[in-house]
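#struct-pred
JK: can someone run the complex with benzoic acid? inputs below
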Amino acid sequence: MVVLGEVFPNFEAESTEGHIRFHDFIRGSWCILLAHPSDFTPVCTTEMGAAAKMAPALLRRGVKMACISCDPVSSHKTWIEDIRAYNGLGSGPFPFPIISDEERQLAKKLGMIDPDEPRFDNKPATARAVFIIGPDLRLKLSMLYPGTTGRNFAEIQRIMESLLVTAKHKVVTPEQWQVGEKCFVVPFLSMEEAKDMFPAGVQVHPVPSGKQYLRTTPMPN
Ligand code: BEZ
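RT: done, structure tokens with the ligand placed:
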């Protein structure tokens, strides 16, 4: 298992876009690495459609995507046509590579195999993992869902927006935060530092304790 803050393992694998050396693939970008249980399954087909729809806008902002499962590359390539058809995607190049982990080496290394998950061809399959890796190659976020339950890709996009703003500025984003909304100033800045750092203004929200930790500022650029 990789824990938050650790350098993400550098692996080599075949994909729908050829041989991938993962650290070279990231090369100074952010990366959202997704895993899905199996090609030609209904929930995964909906998820890949959602991922493909959000990928071009993220790429323009320096965020690459890649996906992985234990199916061979030939299967991924055929499945991509189903993903396009079911989700009404255009016919241009599929916006991210789908990696093959037939030997399940990565699935095991990254803790993505759940013994209770359904098996495909009598072999264990990957659960629905999300890893967000920073340009410094370190793991910034991970999520693990079972095969039964499709992920919310609007939430993954929201998380990515939060990671981008909080990596650049000393802010944190609250529950249900959406891009463009106010952020909280990190609690460990003094009031003077906060005012210097956020010229758009810092609003203190009074609470019974009298402690001034609820300080909002417009989302910094
Ligand atoms: C799916 O539809 O993606 C799925 C169905 C059963 C097990 C795992 C995945």
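RT: quick notes.
Residues 37-38, 41-44, 118, 147 surround benzoic acid (CB under 6 Å).
The longest strand covers residues 63-69.
JK: thanks, will look after standup
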